[in-house]
Amino acid sequence: MQKVRFAYNPKAGETVITDWLDNIIDIYQRGGYSIMPYRLAFTETEETDLLDDIDGSYHHILVAGGDGTVNYVVNLLKRRNLDLPVAVLPTGTANDFANTLGVPSDIEKACRRILGGEIRRVDLGRANDEYFVNVFSCGLFTDVSQKTPTILKNTFGKLAYYFGGLGELPNFRKMHISIESDGGNYEGPSLIFFVFNGRTAGQMRFAYLSEIDDGLLDVIVIKGDRPIETVRTIFHFIKRNTKDYPAGIVHFKSRDILLHSYNEETTDIDGQPGPRFPVRIACEPGALRVICPQKKPKK
């Protein structure tokens, strides 16, 4: 019987994952796997405690949490040079990476479809020495996820991000940034900019054209020239109008990106504090093995 490491964040999102432990273990055991639970504590010894016994007897690591939790575990795996497939249970607030993989929000359905799913390789972004599975960002919304109390995020979900960011808009100072890349360049003002490996941030689909396995990252700059137009642009994304990019947005694809800011700005990777400027971002094609769940059976 192959083993599965189950790393869960007990404080993530609205789902009380501890209430589901027995169900998850039961589903996996019935599927022919021996599941080894581990409660994430985000301590200095976590890497050793979580990964020291990982060997060829392990089939995959199951991660329960949001994008920040997945980011954390993936970075631990990469530091150990472990190529263990990752499966995700979406128990965070936004769960953008899980959505990109097509994981159902229902925990029981997610487990069953993961067990019937396939292992495939997807890209990773790397910002200086830190990996990200979904998105690097800077500007408006960037530190909202870091500042928003857990209880508020768990109560209001993704709305806590939207309204937190919009509340900052009247007093927000636009950045002046420089982007040099093999796919395009930009220098000028920015209200917020993203470098996407995935497609969504706070479940808003900014990166319409992004593919998680194309060997490219999607760069999106929202200039924010006029506040009213900027609000319209943000709600354009919330409504998920996927026809094209509205005016005031720069978009291009790239493999290698160098970012400069003329002021000290806060950066974010997958909802966690990111590196300081200047930032070199690279796409590492096929750097992560994931389990994409079985598609919903046709009736």
TrEMBL record:
The keyword Kinase applies. This is YegS/Rv2252/BmrU family lipid kinase. It comes from the Bacteria. It holds the Pfam family DAGK_cat. Keywords: ATP-binding, Kinase, Lipid biosynthesis, Lipid metabolism, Magnesium, Metal-binding, Nucleotide-binding, Phospholipid biosynthesis, Phospholipid metabolism, Transferase. Its cofactor is Mg(2+). InterPro entries: ATP-NAD_kinase_N, Diacylglycerol/lipid_kinase, Diacylglycerol_kinase_cat_dom, Lipid_Phosphate_FormReg, NAD/diacylglycerol_kinase_sf, YegS/DAGK_C. The keyword Lipid metabolism applies.
